[in-house]
């Protein structure tokens, strides 16, 4: 069961010895034995009950939503979240992943950042700018990501597209089997309702061609409340919560209303960069931070996690698959689908 597998990750015998030693130190040996026995019995009982009731909280039917995704349209060969990117990637992958924002004049546009600095090379906030005043997307962003810099077929500057432009592209007869994964960056009810209306108007919801989500828990809950029939991918807080509950053996007791569970194919360095953004953790010594990172990575990247999610009829997705090593890791994990920045490479590698 999950809780006992966690002991293997942490060095089970030593963890138990430390816990028991702490109890002995805080109270006499007799009380420590009683408390320890009660704790172990409680965990065992909870895990047993969880296994008995696992099927009660399983989703009714496991969806099929493609196997290959282009992150922001595939930003290694074309400028991210632009029409050239979507036109190119839709010829090679099953699903286009994109990000949506609402402009000052209530136009739904496809863009990743809240500001223009990185990909447009100028100051400004997208939510405070009218659609007609939006800058162009450059081939060479400030973060140094390729984005088709050497691709002669792509213009040096590309407009920030309307969300409806992408839906119209995927509504063409030759792209009718392509789907869309929509990420929300903005907590805005108007944006959610506008996007939902557009998806219904083009038949994407009716034809099961859309999944929407946000990495922020609050926005993800807003999406679920707006339309429970549209499948959702897990937010970051949900991933963390579900992972911890799984290793404690308690996740089967918890209802889950997501259709996809996604993790990033990240290195220790990238995970540590994330830890440094969490105020509670960033003040801790570096050694403790790295211990947390290594422990969490071991817990998160176990194939057991994906196996369990599949038993609940939840699809498993691995993000950031851009190399042969990443692809091999996705196979070891048993991922149902992979998200890449390089659709040309993935189309050949699969």
TrEMBL record:
A single GO molecular function term of this UniProt record: phosphoric diester hydrolase activity
Keywords for this entry? Hydrolase, Lipid metabolism, Membrane, Transmembrane, Transmembrane helix
Q: Where does the record place the GP-PDE domain? A: 66-350
Q: Which Pfam families match?
A: GDPD
Record's subcellular location: Membrane
Q: Which domain of life is it from?
A: Eukaryota
One GO term under biological process is: glycerophospholipid catabolic process
Q: Is Lipid metabolism a UniProt keyword of this protein?
A: yes
The record's listing under InterPro entries reads: GDPD-Related, GP_PDE_dom, PLC-like_Pdiesterase_TIM-brl
GO cellular component terms given for this protein: cytoplasm; membrane
- Name the predominant localization: membrane
Protein's UniProt keywords contain Lipid metabolism = yes
Which protein, by its recorded name, is this? GP-PDE domain-containing protein
Tell me the organism's taxonomic lineage: Eukaryota, Sar, Stramenopiles, Bigyra, Labyrinthulomycetes
């Amino acid at each position: 069961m999950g809780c006992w597998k966690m002991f293997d990750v942490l060095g089970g015998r030593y963890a138990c010895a430390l816990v028991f030693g702490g109890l002995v130190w805080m109270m006499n040996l007799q009380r420590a034995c009683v408390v320890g026995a009660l704790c172990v019995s409680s965990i065992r009982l909870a895990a047993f009950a969880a296994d008995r009731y696992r099927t009660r909280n399983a989703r009714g039917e496991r969806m099929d939503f493609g196997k290959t995704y282009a992150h922001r349209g595939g930003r290694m060969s074309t400028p991210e979240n632009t029409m050239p990117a979507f036109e190119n990637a839709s010829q090679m992958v099953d699903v286009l992943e994109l990000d949506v924002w609402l402009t000052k004049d209530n136009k739904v546009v496809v863009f990743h950042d809240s500001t223009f600095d990185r990909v447009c090379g100028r100051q400004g906030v997208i939510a405070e700018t009218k659609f007609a005043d939006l800058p162009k997307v450059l081939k060479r962003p400030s973060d140094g990501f390729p984005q088709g810099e050497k691709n002669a077929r792509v213009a040096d500057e590309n407009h920030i597209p309307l969300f409806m432009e992408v839906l119209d592209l995927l509504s063409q007869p030759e792209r009718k089997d392509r789907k869309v994964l929509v990420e929300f960056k903005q907590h805005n009810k108007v944006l959610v309702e506008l996007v939902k209306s557009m998806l219904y108007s083009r038949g994407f919801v009716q034809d099961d061609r859309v999944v929407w989500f946000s990495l922020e828990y609050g926005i993800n809950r807003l999406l679920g409340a707006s339309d429970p029939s549209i499948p959702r991918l897990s937010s970051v807080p949900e991933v963390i919560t579900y992972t911890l509950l799984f290793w404690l053996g308690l996740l089967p007791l918890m209802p889950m209303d997501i259709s996809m569970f996604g993790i990033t194919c990240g290195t220790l360095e990238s995970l540590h960069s994330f830890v440094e953004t969490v105020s509670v953790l960033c003040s801790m010594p570096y050694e403790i931070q790295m211990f947390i990172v290594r422990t969490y990575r071991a817990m998160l990247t176990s194939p057991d996690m994906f196996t369990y999610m599949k038993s609940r009829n939840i699809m498993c997705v691995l993000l950031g698959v851009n190399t042969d090593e990443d692809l091999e890791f996705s196979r070891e994990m048993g991922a149902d689908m992979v998200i890449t920045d390089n659709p040309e490479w993935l189309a050949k590698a699969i």
